Amino acid sequence: MTTRIDRRMAKLKTEGRPALVTYFMGGDPDYDTSLSIMKALPGAGADIIELGMPFSDPMADGPAIQAAGLRALKGGQTLVKTLKMALEFRTGDNETPIVLMGYYNPIYIYGVDRFLKDAIASGIDGLIVVDLPPEMDEELCIPALKAGINFIRLATPTTDDKRLPKVLQNTSGFVYYVSMTGITGSALADTGKVAAAVKRIKGHTDLPVCVGFGVKTAEQARVIGANADGVVVGTAIVNAVANVLGPKGEKTADPAEAVATLVSGLAQGVRSARLAAAE
Amino acid sequence: MDKPATPNSFRTGPDEQGMFGIFGGRFVAETLMPLILDLERHWNEVKDDPDFKAELTDLSTHYAGRPSKLYFAEGLTKHLREVSAAKGLGGGAKVYFKREDLNHTGSHKINNCLGQILLAKRMGKKRIIAETGAGQHGVASATVAARFGFPCVVYMGATDVARQSPNVFRMKLLGAEVRPVTAGHGTLKDAMNEALRDWVTNVEDTYYLIGTAAGPHPYPELVRDFQSVIGTEARAQILEQEGRLPDTIIACVGGGSNAIGLFHPFLDDKDVRIIGIEAGGRGLDGIEHCASMSAGAPGVLHGNRTYLLQNSDGQIMDGHSISAGLDYPGVGPEHSWLRDSGRVEYVPILDDEALEAFKLTTRVEGIIPALESAHAIAHAVKIVPAMDKDQIVIVNLSGRGDKDVHTVASMLGMEI
C-alpha cells in the first residue's frame, strides 16, 4: 500500500531534489488564521506538511514552539479541531501529504482507535509522536501501521548503529533525522556531521531520510538538502507567525503571507540543493 | 475500570518494560532512550552489588544520620485521645512518627540523592541536573553534588522560587545554580519539563537526578528502592518497640517518593492498612488541588503513564497546593497501580486541614513538620480518635517545616 508520502517522495526523486517539509502549529494563533497558513503552504513550495498538535507540556521543544502551542491552546485548539483543520484543507488539496506531529497524551485521551479512524477520515498520512520510542510500539505505532498510516520515527545523534535497526523496524514514510541532541529551534549542527549521519542511516534503510532541528534559512536548507531526501523547517515558520503578532496577540500583518514568503525562499533553497551537491 | 486480579505479591513490579500494570513505561524522546537504557544497565549492575550497598550504607549512617528514629508521638496521641473521649468514643490509637525530618538536609530526599549520586559517579557523569518543587530535593541534590564535587543545576518554578526562598539560598550556598522556570504556573511540572530539555541537550555528560518515584523507567524503581530504607527501618523498629506490625501507615503523596519508601516494605503485610494522602488544596470540586488519583485520569507525561490532572483534550492542568512539594499534577506510576489494585487507599487533605495539623504538631509535639508531612498528620488526626487504644498508626514525618514558616505566616496573616 502506498501513501501520499510514498508517492510524493517518489515524485521528488524523479525530479532529483529533496523535499521541503514544513512544520506549523495547528491553531496558532487561532483556527482560521492557522487554516489559512496551511492552505498557503503548498503554493509557496512546501512538499510535505507537518501539522503540529499543541500540547501543554512539550518536553522536546524550545521556547518558540512552546509559545506557539500555548497560543494555540489559548485560542481554543483541541485535537478535534486539528483533525477538522486537516479535513478542511483536504477539500482543496488531495495530494500534499499531511503528517501530524506532537505528543502522545492528547491522542491517548482521545482514544487510539477512534483517533486513527478520524485521522484517516481527515486525510492524515503520517504521525510523528515525540514521546513514543520503539519500546512503546504497541501503543500507537503498530495500530497506525495496521490502519495504513505511516509512523515516522525520529533518529538522533544518540541512536547508534546498534540501536538503529530497532528504531527503523516499524518506521515508514520517511525517517526524520534530528540533527543534534537538544530541543527544537537550537543552532544548526555541523553540516558535515549531519551528512555523515544521513549516510549512516541510509546504510540501514531504503526509506527517505529528512533532516530537521535547526534549519532556518534558504542557505541552510540548500546545504542540508544536498545530502538528504528532505529538509524539515519548523521553528523558523513558527517564528514567522510570532513576528506578525503584537504584544496582545493581535495581528500586525497577515501570518499566512509571512509564512508563504519564508517558505518560498526555503523552497528555492531545496531546489538548488543538488546543484550544491554537484559543486 | 475493572480491578486487576489481586497478585500474590505487591512487591514484584515493575516488569522488564518498566510497567506496573498499565502504568509506568518509557515515554521519552528517542534522544533520551539510549541514556535511559544505559542508566538501567548500570542500575541493574549496582542494585545487588555489595560494594555499592556498603558505600551507600556508610554514607547513610555517617553523613545522613540513618537510621532515622521511630518516635512515639505521645503528645499528639494524648491530644487525640482527649478528642476521642470528648466524642464519647474512648479510643485513640498510638501515633508514631517516622522521623525523616531528622535526616541531614531535613527530609527524606537525601536517601535518594545519596543513592543516585553514587550511581552518577559509577557512570562517569560530570554534571548533575535536578528539578525541585519545595526545594527539599534541590537542597539534597546540591548537597550531594557539593559532597562529591559535581557542578549542579537545579530547575525550580519561578512561583516556588518566590515561596521557598530559604531553600533557594541554601542551594546557592551549596554551590548549585538555581534556574527559575517561568513557563506554565512556574511550579514543579514546569521545572521537570525544563530539566528534561536540559538533559536532551546535554546527553554526553549529564546525570538527571530525578527527585521522586516518577519519570521513565528505571527511575520509579530505583528511587523507590533508595527510599525503601524508610519502610524497612520502620517495620523493624515497630516490631522491636511494640512487638507487632502497625494497623495503619500514612504518608503524603506528591510524586510519592516518601510514601512509596514507607509503603513498599509493608505491601505484603495484608493486615496493615496503607493510606496515601494527596493534596486536596482548596477542594476537589474546582481545579485548585493536586489530587491526581482522587480526581484525575490515566495519561502520559514526563516519561510515564500515570494518573494525571488533565482536561478532556489531554492537556495537563496546573494544580494547586499550599505545599510546594505536593504541587504536581501527576504521581509516581507505582502509586497509580497500587490505587487501581486496591492495595493502597488514596485520600485528599485540604490546605486548611494541613495547616491545622501543622499548628497542632508544633504545639503538642514541639516538632515543626513540613507542610507536605502535615497533610499525612492531618489524616491521622481525622482517623485516630475513632480507632482503639491498642491500635498503632505510623505517620511518615517526611521533612521538617522550617522552610515553610514564611508560607504559614502569610496564611495566618502575620509578617515575619
Give your account of this protein's structure.
The complex is a heterodimer of chains A (279) and B (416). Chain A is an alpha/beta fold and 279 residues long. Chain A has a single domain, classed as Aldolase class I (TIM Barrel). Chain A contains 13 helices and 9 strands. Chain A has a 9-stranded parallel β-sheet with strand order 5-4-3-2-1-9-8-7-6. In chain A, strand 7, helix 9 and strand 8 form a beta-alpha-beta unit. In chain A, helix 2 crosses helix 4, helix 2 packs parallel to helix 12 and helix 10 runs parallel beside helix 12. The longest helix of chain A has 17 residues, at 255-271. By secondary structure, chain B is an alpha/beta fold. Chain B folds into 2 domains: 20-63 and 108-224, Rossmann fold (3-Layer(aba) Sandwich), CATH 3.40.50.1100; 66-106 and 228-411, Rossmann fold (3-Layer(aba) Sandwich), CATH 3.40.50.1100. In chain B, 42% of the residues lie in helices and 18% in strands. Chain B is built from 16 helices and 14 strands. Chain B has helices at residues 33-46, 50-64, 74-86, 109-122, 136-148, 158-163, 165-173, 188-201, 219-227, 229-242, 257-263, 292-295, 333-341, 351-365, 371-383, 405-411, and strands at 19-20, 23-27, 70-72, 94-99, 127-132, 152-157, 177-181, 206-208, 248-252, 273-281, 297-301, 303-308, 345-350, 392-397. Chain B has a 6-stranded mixed β-sheet, sandwiched between helices. Chain B has a 4-stranded antiparallel β-sheet with strand order 1-2-12-11. In chain B, strand 1 and strand 2 (23-27) form a beta hairpin. In chain B, 62% of the residues are buried. The mean pLDDT of chain B is 95. Chains A and B meet through helix 5 and strand 6 of A and strand 2, helix 1, helix 8, strand 11 and strand 12 of B.
